[in-house]
Amino acid sequence: MSAEQQLAVVPPKETALAVYSAEKGLEPWLQVIRSKIDGFTPDISTRKGREAIASMAYAVARSKTALDDVGKKLVAELKEVPKLIDAERKRVRDTLDSWQEEVRRPLNEWQAAEDARVDKHNDAIERIRLLAVDLDGITAEDLADRVAQLEAVALGDDWEEFEAEAARAKDKALSALRAALTARQQYEADQAELARRRAEDELRAQQEREAQIAREAEERARREVEQQAQTEREAAARREQELIDQAAAAQRAAEQAARDAEAAAELQRRQLQLQAEQAQLAAEQAEANRIATERRAEQERIAAEERALQAAEQARVDERRRADAAAAEIVRQQEARERDEAHRRSINRAALDAFIAGGMPEECAKQAITLIAQRKIPAISIQY
Fold first, then answer.
1. Distance CA 52, CA 33 (A)
2. SS (H, E, C) 344-375
3. What is the DSSP code (8-state) at residue 160?
4. Residue 113 pLDDT exceeds 80
5. pLDDT tens digits along 181-231
6. CB 3.0–4.6 Å: which of 132, 138, 317, 363 could bond 176 by disulfide?
7. Helices (DSSP H) in the chain: which residue ranges?
8. Under 8 Å CB-to-CB from 135, ≥6 apart: which residues?
9. CB within 8 A of 371, min separation 6: which ones?
10. How many Å apart are CA 83 and CA 76, to the nearest integer?
């Protein structure tokens, strides 16, 4: 901006910051402009006068722009100063941070190694403690395996200052595991004893049923033999009475004939005597038949008793066979359950070893196997 277009010369660059930053520092420049405005007397009635007014107003505006531009440039330059300062500050911070890291690196490395060492010992102690938690439902075999694992944990200088804490954790875990093992062994022994007693009760009940069946069969056979013998005796008695009646009738007929023909010849008497002898022989034959019938009845009774005993024995043998089959089935089912449990433990152990081989901590692997086996993990199962 030329001097003709503005009413006051702007402050020089060397002093501009001091002028603009001082309170009312531009007041002298404003007074110069004000004096020129006060010394201007326009003539509004003429064109030249009106042009002079417009020129004066333009000169005031140009002076405003010139003075404001100088301040604007100062502000722009001053705004760059914080950026330069911040950049230098950042450079110094970065440099000192790198130097601090360089100086502290050995301590940091030592601290990291120390933290890893402490974490290793703490993790090992935690694994010892975890062997003795959640013991409900664990079999005596698994508890004994945990006791063996824990007893195999060696204590010594390798544990460093954590040896005492590891020893306490080991002793506490062993106490809990051994107590749980003792209780579980007692429980399993009690269960085995209950199973044995149930089997004995079932066998005893079966034997009692067999004995009852044999007694009932023997009683039925005895009644049948007695009934048959009684029937045979009654039939023999009837046949004997019939023969006696026949002999009596013949005797009566002979006596009647003797009375009617006392004068009958000797031949007639012999005939009558012969008839009497024949009747006697018939009676004797009837007696012999009766005795033979009783003998046959006795033989049939004995045979019936033998058949009843054989039937009872066969029933006892059949029932015993069924009892043995039932007991064998119980044993087979128990063995099947034991084989299935052993099979499941084998598969679970293989899965556990696979998890551990894949980098999973043993306790995490055990928990994962347990959750999967209990079907608490959706869409994942163990094929047994």
1. 16
2. HHHHHHHHHHHHHHCCCCHHHHHHHHHHHHCC
3. G
4. yes
5. 898 889 888 888 898 898 888 888 888 888 888 788 778 878 887 788 788
6. 132
7. 13-21, 27-38, 47-130, 140-151, 163-260, 266-357, 362-373
8. 143, 176, 177, 180
9. 377
10. 11
